[in-house]
Write the structure tokens for this entry.
Amino acid sequence: MANKISDERKKEIIEGFYQLSVQNGLENTSIAKIGKHLGMPPSLIMHYFPTREILISNLISHILDQYLMIYEPVIRELETKNYADPNTFVDSLFSRDWNMLFDDGVFYSCYSLIFRNDRIKKEYRLLHDKLRESLKDILDRDDNFAGKDTDLLAEQIFVVVEGAYYYLSMIDDENVYNRKLEAYKSQVYDLLRKYEVQHL
Amino acid sequence: MANKISDERKKEIIEGFYQLSVQNGLENTSIAKIGKHLGMPPSLIMHYFPTREILISNLISHILDQYLMIYEPVIRELETKNYADPNTFVDSLFSRDWNMLFDDGVFYSCYSLIFRNDRIKKEYRLLHDKLRESLKDILDRDDNFAGKDTDLLAEQIFVVVEGAYYYLSMIDDENVYNRKLEAYKSQVYDLLRKYEVQHL
DNA sequence: TATAATATTGAACGGATGTTCAATTTATGA
DNA sequence: TCATAAATTGAACATCCGTTCAATATTATA
């Protein structure tokens, strides 16, 4: 609460940056354009983010926070119940809902920066470690997976999820999209079933 | 063979573009820089590629061709034999070799363009359709998968492969890398085993 | 060899880029 | 209220961007 104006401006700038990046792409969004979009001179943007690199770095933190926020409702739902139906869980993971809330184009643009920037790489790694850890905790709380390698299971589930979004992003045709979606879903169902303790 | 000089120059320009993109990133590689790198004026580049958009489009075709070329030895090996050991096949798919031959950074940069360019999206889609189709053909030729949904199997294998490369690209630590690599490999082994006809 | 087509050059363009800076306005705290 | 700090402005910068164009050199064709 020390610098309230400062914090609000920073937030405003980053969100403006994000919005324009969704529309025109990260690489086509300049500081001048952000300024025009928000009705402020570029020099003000540079007052809060001294270089473009710092700006981008903050945009990435913002995006990764958003990404985490999208997962959170699913994770929290599973944390409250001691056992949640895997089907509903998988359905949430593959829900089309957060395609509306989150722009994959900007996400992959930022992802591609990990190959030349170790700090960004680390930030992406930490995000995914956190997600995997959350899932593992949930699985551990479930008796069906007692004594199983839930670390490995969580890892293998997320690999399918990421691969699925990679492929689904290429698909325009709704029927094809749904068919593929079901294929990837059942792939995760199978993983869960494979790991579950057999009840009689 | 009509325009040999033209074709060679085009190839030279695209490869120069690719090399600089590997070093500095796609978004930091300008026409002027390519010209300087190859010792030719930017106007010559624009003579062969009238706009930057066309240049990028050709770079993407080049990259997707290369991507296909990396898969080809594996695919051809499996085509010649009537039955190839799934293990060696999976090993090849996950071989670290083509990380040396192919730059994932440029690949993902180009991939992120699919979200705002339908032609690029289609080109990526066709590439992956082709790869999946090749794998399906190979599986179909194998008696162990007779009567099985090899289309689905191929799809699910590639989802794991793509997801795997997505995650592995974030890992620097060699031990962690290898551990994850094995997890993803065994995930594909499991898929193959699940689909195989049971022999006694 | 003459002619047409192609390849190559170098200069120039308007505009956009990230960044700097000094001046001014606004808010904060004593 | 007054001094100090923070927020904001607008102009200016060197440099790079993609692109254009007319002129020249080279090659292919008849």
Notes: Chain B touches chain A at residues 24-27, 103-105, 108-109, 111-116, 118, 121, 124-125, 128, 152, 155-156, 158-164, 166-167, 169-172, 180, 183-184, 187, 190, 194 (CB under 8 Å). Residues 52-80 of chain B form the longest helix (29 residues). Residues 3, 5-6, 9, 40-41, 43-44, 47-48 of chain B lie near DNA strand C (CB under 10 Å from a C1').
